[in-house]
Amino acid sequence: MKFEQHLSQQQKQVQKLAMTQQLQQSIQILQYNSEELHAYIETKSLENPLIDIQANISHQDFSSSGSRTYSNEENNYLNQIPDSHTSLFEFLIDQIHLNYRDTHLRTLVLFLVEFIDLNGYLTIDLDEAAEKTGANSIEMLDALTLIQQLDPAGVGARDLRECLMLQVERDDTAPPLAYIVIEEEFDQLANRKWSLIAKKFNVDLSDIQTIFDYIQTLTPSPGSIFESTSGLYIRPDLTLRIKGEQLIVLSNKKGVPKLSFQQAYFERMQAVEDKEVQAYIQEKKSEFEWLEKTILQRGDTILRVGREIVKRQRAFFFNEERPLVPMNLKEIAETLDVHESTVSRAVNGKYLETEFGVFELKSFFSHGLSNESTGEETSTSSIKKQLQKLVDDEDKAKPLSDQKIVDLLKEQEIEISRRTVTKYREALGIPASSKRKRYDK
Fold it and tell me: How many CA atoms lie within 13 A of 275 on its CB side?
């Protein structure tokens, strides 16, 4: 068999979308949230001498997630600056120097503090610490005891059980048996084998329930209060105004830096008779024009998408139960004649400020389940709300099983499987019925 290879030259015309660098940057800018956009523009202003940023931000542009910043709040610009806490390590060091004399034992305390993690737990074994310092086990235990007497309560614990015991020990309002139950029957308590505990200590189940409820008020991570508070505030991209039956969506211009062209500098550079300078200054001018146009397009896209979302979810803004109708990215994309990925980028990390809270735009999207009897779709968020309400209203002495919830939802013309109920219940953070049972008197 003979194989032959023929080579020839042909011209072929095809259409192809070229992802230029500027197009890629435009897509990226749409995806940026407010903070990322600010950082990007600041970087560009450092690279381009023709770009000047005129910040137009007031304390009213900052809204705490899920809450509203009211216009009658005191006009204190320091409110937008996060509280600057010292670290847990620094806090412990200050207490050690303040409370303990300069002795060998304090040296061991300072050594152990180096091994306290951000949650407040000791991460080194005392035997290992003794080997590293040359101290004996009793000295290391004494040093740890001194750390565990510091604030916050629970710091220096080696596990969750010890952390809770340290907190109970300092609390005069703790239930009488709380400390000994945690010390001797912690696993049984966590696994809700309360009958065994009640029998051992000769108390009622309601007493164990009281101890369990009290433990829920304690913190498993005493050092977490020292974590950074940065990022707790957001700048809403859109603002909703309700006037009668009208829903008016406005772009929050104050949240976006205003670009200004350095005209005087540009004219001075134009006067320089140097080809390289002329090419450079023209390039930077084009970059400014592109950036200004892209930022405007970003704002316009977010506004269009936001208005369409509000239009489709009208009931959410007028009904106190905040119901959502089923809605997906494809529906919005088809209406606005854009790609689904554009809608996705326009809603991720973008927020709508209302009179009753601040909401991420993507939170308004909800899949639906078809109702065979009515032929209509019910959003998953509405089903979850109904499930949550059933659990909230249940008899805590006889909590509803997943199958019983299925039956009750069916009475409300919502037909879903027990497996789906379990999935939604877990997504809502609702324990199983055996873990929800209470033993109140």
Answer: 0
Q: Would you tell me the crossing angle of helices 275-312 and 340-347 to the nearest 10 degrees?
A: 90
What are 355's two structure tokens?
């009179």
The tokens describing 211, both together, are 């101890």
d(CA 428, CA 421): 11
Distances (CA, A) of 10 to 4, 6, 7, 13: 19, 13, 10, 10
CA gap 439, 210 in Å, rounded: 9
Burial 250-283 (b: 16+ CB within 10 A, else e): ebbebbbbebeebeeebeebeeeeeeeeeeebee
Q: Residue 176, exposed/middle/buried by CB under 10 A (0-12, 13-18, 19+)? A: exposed
Question: What pairs with residue 358 in β-bridges?
Answer: 353
For the purposes of burial, counting CB atoms within 10 Å of the CB of 127, is it exposed (0-12), middle (13-18) or buried (19 or more)? exposed
**Residue 183 CA to its chain's centroid (Å):** 34
Rounded to the nearest 5°, which phi and psi values hold at 76? -110, 110
Q: What is the token pair recorded at 404?
A: 């019983």
Q: From CA 348, how far away is CA 363, in angstroms rounded?
A: 9
Within 8 A by CB and 6+ apart from 68, the residues are: 353, 354, 355, 356, 357, 358
- Percent of the chain clearing pLDDT 70 (strictly above): 83
One-letter amino acid of 134: G
Cα separation values, 199 from 41, 147, 180, 182, 195, Å: 67, 36, 14, 15, 6
**Domains and their CATH numbers in the chain:** 20-71+230-366 (no CATH), 88-226 (no CATH), 368-436 (1.10.10.60)
Query: What integer pLDDT is reported at residue 3 of this predicted model?
Result: 53
Residue with tokens 């084998």: 193
Query: Residues 333, 342: contact at Cβ < 8 Å?
Result: yes
d(CA 333, CA 326): 15
For residue 155, the tally of other CB atoms under 10 A from its CB is: 25
- Name the token pair of 227: 């974590």
Instruction: Answer yes or no: are the C-beta atoms of 63 and 69 closer than 8 Å.
Output: yes
Residue 53 bridge partners (DSSP): 259
pLDDT, tens digit, for every residue of 169-224? 999 999 999 999 999 999 999 999 999 999 999 999 999 999 999 999 999 999 98
Cis amide linkage into residue 49, ω under 30° from 0? no
The proportion of the chain whose per-residue pLDDT surpasses 90, expressed as a percent, equals 48
